[in-house]
Amino acid sequence: MDIVILGLLMVQDLTVYQLNQAFKSGIALIYSASYGSILSAIKKLLELKEITFIELVENGRNKKIYHITAAGIAHFFQWMHADIDGNKLETMALCKVFFLGLIDSDDEKRKILENIISAIINMEESLNQLSQYLSQLQLSDEEKKLHGYQFKTLDYGIRSHGVAREWAQELLDELSA
Asked: Which of 1, 30, 110, 112 is deepest in the core (most CB within 10 A)?
């Protein structure tokens, strides 16, 4: 969540209310957050000096407008170029693509997309290996009944990663054209 907030603040300075609205609208399809979790992330980012704020009084109410610092910008770009954790592959990949427009260099964009594709391929290989292993098990009819839908879920994971890889490859091809 910290990175998403940093990315949003890379685009423009925002209040907590505006950050909450951004989570509810634009990025909600790939990342959701409660108001409380946004406040916790802001507190952490302030402690790390990755964001700062100015305080204004508007219509008799205090209003804090958050701004990303040089340290926050460095952290954001470091994350954009970092390898993706396989456990959070879909969310991280989609967040990186969501913020890809903040990367100026087409070469850097390509590297990020290649990193995403590589992570997807690695996960596909792991899921396919698991599927092959499971298909070789000698299961009783009762075990097949019990585990059948678990195997269907694995099949879904394999297929969805295939679609994700194709989609990311299309993005890379468009960028290279």
From this structure: 112
